[in-house]
Design goal:
single chain, mainly alpha, 7 helices, 75% helix, globular
Length: 153
């Protein structure tokens, strides 16, 4: 196996979370993996912020290569963006089921519907940056709704 095909294969495995990205409704499964990790690990916000930043940067790199390896623009099999988006949706919020469950629903709705300006930004960005940014924005949107909820109630 050449270095090029190995790097493509590795990027594809990371970007698709192995076989998870090939399950039916892979975006939902990727978000579920993110939610499960958040529930299990419950890391401090400062560490979660570092994970989001690192995950975004790594996601941009592997998603672009995986997109090329799969041969499909913004392939639904690429789900590392959902994991990072889920983490963003609960950043600076309690990492409890009472926040993670609604964050999951809000994030999925925003990721699927891509309301303004998410769709417009996604369409302007190419490769891994486009793949990762729409989920980052969906996570921010979900987070803002939950921050407002927390503040009001």
């Amino acid at each position: 196996m050449s270095g090029h095909s190995f790097s493509h294969s590795l990027a594809k495995q990371v970007a698709t979370l192995g076989l998870v990205g090939y399950l039916p409704a892979p975006g939902t499964w990727g978000s579920a993996v993110g939610a499960a990790l958040l529930l299990l690990l419950r890391v401090p916000d400062s560490f979660l912020l570092l994970c989001v930043a690192g995950g975004f940067i790594a996601g941009v790199a592997v998603s672009g290569v995986a997109e090329e390896a799969i041969g499909e623009k913004d392939s639904g099999h690429i789900i590392i963006d959902e994991v990072v988006g889920m983490a963003v949706s609960v950043l600076f919020l309690p990492q409890t089921a009472w926040y993670i469950a609604p964050a999951f629903v809000l994030f999925r709705v925003l990721d699927i519907l891509k309301p303004f300006p998410i769709r417009q930004i996604e369409s302007r960005l190419k490769g891994g940056l486009g793949i990762m940014t729409d989920d980052l924005l969906a996570g921010i949107g979900a987070n803002l709704v939950l921050q407002a909820w927390k503040t009001i109630f």
